[in-house]
What we know:
It is built from 2 helices and 9 strands; from the N terminus they run H-H-E-E-E-E-E-E-E-E-E.
Amino acid sequence: MKKILTDAEWKHKLTPEQYRVLREKETEAPFTGKLLYNKEKGMYVCRACGNTLFSSDTKFDAGCGWPSFWNPAENKNIIERVDKSHGMIRKEILCARCGGHLGHVFDDGPKPTGKRYCVNSAALGFIKSVSSHK
Length: 134
């Protein structure tokens, strides 16, 4: 189900940095995001709407300064669009539920997909896996 809010509602729901990234398509400074070095097992979700985006099982260290993944949790949860901003041609990735800007996808990732979903930490929430130890 699509999640559509007014600008005022997004500004109330998100921090200023999250709003700049998710709604205004800004990019956080490299190597500053809270989830860049996260090694815990779990799921990465859209910070704006909670849509499941990536599993920690597909996260890898690309050395680029942003959390990187080689595959989305479900292809239907991410939209790709051509981005011609800043004098470049790239593939922007957006949350399919709320339209929030996540980052970009590049064709220089590891096997098996060869993709690098380069995502702003400010666009992500993290839900840690619950251990099944008894």
